Amino acid sequence: MHTFLKRYVAKWILSVFRYRWMASIILLGLIDFISYQAFTLGGVMLPVRFQDKILHCGAFMVLYILGHLSLNFDFFPGIKGFSFRILALNWMVWLSYGFMIEAVQSLLNHRSASVGDFIADVCGIALGCTAVLAMNIYPPTQEAGTYEERL
Fold first, then answer.
1. pTM for the whole thing?
2. Cβ 66 vs Cβ 124: under 8 Å
3. Distance (Å, rounded) from C-alpha 37 to C-alpha 26?
């Protein structure tokens, strides 16, 4: 499974985001969409139990992966390979965003804050972090110019 993730899924992700700015643009659009959904009346309904928690977890997993790509490729392009600083910054950004959503929802009459939603956010961040570490998605080093050469 680990080889499959590194060879195929990571290769696909890097081919989709071959232009450095694409992850940042998609990330901004996703933040806008999630914020709109979090603060408006009503929401997406699925015929699944705990659908709200599943959506929170999935959204924050995608946010973490896109945030990782954006930070690594756009904001810190000089860092090649694993960086605890980028990992910690990504965690802090998405934890703050999840907490901010719940804090604002506690002030709205038509929404309510939930500790369960925040826990689902944390689980999504952890899944995103695990996926990034398992797929080894980092900018290529000077010696190996492409992702395939590093495998």
1. 0.78
2. no
3. 16
In angstroms, the CA 38 to CA 25 distance is 20
Rounded to whole angstroms, the Cα distance separating 86 from 100 reads 21
**CA dist., res. 151 & res. 133, Å (int):** 14
Position 142 scores a pLDDT of 45
Dist CA 75 CA 98 (whole Å): 22
Per-domain boundaries in the chain: 2-150
State how far the Cα of 14 lies from the Cα of 137, in Å rounded to an integer: 8
Asked whether the CA dihedral 136, 141, 145, 149 is positive or negative, the reply is negative
pLDDT, mean of residues 131-138: 82
Q: State the DSSP string of 75-139.
A: I-TT--S--HHHHHHHHHHHHHHHHHHHHHHHH-SS----HHHHHHHHHHHHHHHHHHHHHT--P
Could you give the percent of the chain with pLDDT greater than 70? 75
Decide: 37 and 44 in contact? Cβ < 8 Å: yes
